[in-house]
Amino acid sequence: MKRVMVRMFFRSLTLGLTTLAALSAWSLPGEAVEDPKPFQVFDGTLYSNKPDLSQYGIRPIAIAYAGKFGLDWYKQADRLPNVESVRAVAREVRQQGNVAVLDIEHWSLKGLPDSVTDSLAKYKTVLGWFQEAASNVSVGYYGSPPIRDYWRAIRHKTSREYQAWMDENDQLRPLASAVDVFFPSLYTFYPDQTGWKTYAVAQIEEARRYGNGKPVYVFLWPQYHDSNRQLGGQYLPDDYWLLQLRTAKEHADGIVIWGGWGGNNRPAGWDEHAPWWKVTKGFMKTLDAGRVSSR
């Protein structure tokens, strides 16, 4: 119990110092106020025949899936990709934009400390290769850190389960220090909207806790995760999708919208009249209105 209380004290102290720093940045009446950093929305979707979404303020983003670094390397858990393959992808991304996601998920970040340490070393090695070849690109890993965990994230912050989750996230500090940006995965597993919001905010707060001010861009998917046998693949109700967009706007620095992968290993076709897309366009208009009003 004492250890838990000590951990909670130092975590509260860290959060308090972060809040104090934010307060100190506020301007007094009469002082010049800079425009807030714009909220970013990125297109990570895979739909075919998709229009140019930049006309709606949705920027493209480079997602480097494991297969981009070679066809077979990731089938062996202890194997690293070829360094030149990683650097080639980095140089390609360098020409496309200034934000990139590395999607390598098979090295587990949960389990025995030695196993986690070994996985961290692999993730940091690939990240370092990428950063060396594309130093102008802000890069991070899809999904971690922090560890995605729905059930523990929705527990009370003083619970044993939540504290254990935070401890596991603390093990990932070496990787958190190395990435330029965080990409928590906030995909939807259940129709419980209140539960989803609690889980989403907790994931974002964990990224903030050891992020040292680095951007937090959350992955959202307008469909239920395929791990849900009953709902997997179904599109979210309009109000649920809007809740997710608004929650991300309130707590994160941006969104990466993912989806569009159909059956038979083929992208799904773009549907301009899809309800989720109508909701998204409406959300983007509110961002534009907010930017205009802040000038």
Descriptive report:
The chain is α/β, with parallel strands linked by helices. The chain has a single domain, classed as Aldolase class I (TIM Barrel). It is built from nine helices and seven strands, in the order H-E-E-E-H-E-H-E-H-H-H-H-E-H-E-H. It has helices at residues 2-24, 83-94, 113-133, 150-153, 160-170, 173-178, 193-209, 238-251, 275-293, and strands spanning 40-43, 59-60, 62-65, 99-103, 138-141, 217-220, 254-257. Strand 6, helix 8 (238-251) and strand 7 (254-257) form a beta-alpha-beta unit. The termini are far apart.
**Spatial gap, N to C terminus:** 50 Å
Rg on CA atoms, Å: 20 Å
Count helical runs. 9
Mean pLDDT: 88
Q: Please report the total strand number as a whole number.
A: 7
Shape from CA axes? Answer: globular
Query: How many structural domains can be distinguished in the coordinates?
Result: 1
Indicate the low-confidence ranges by residue numbers: 1-6, 12-35
> Could you give the order of strands across the largest sheet?
2-1-7-6
Tell me the CATH architecture: Alpha-Beta Barrel
CATH topology: TIM Barrel
CATH first level: which class?
Answer: Alpha Beta
Oligomer: single chain
Strand content: 5-15%
Within CATH, the superfamily carries the name Aldolase class I
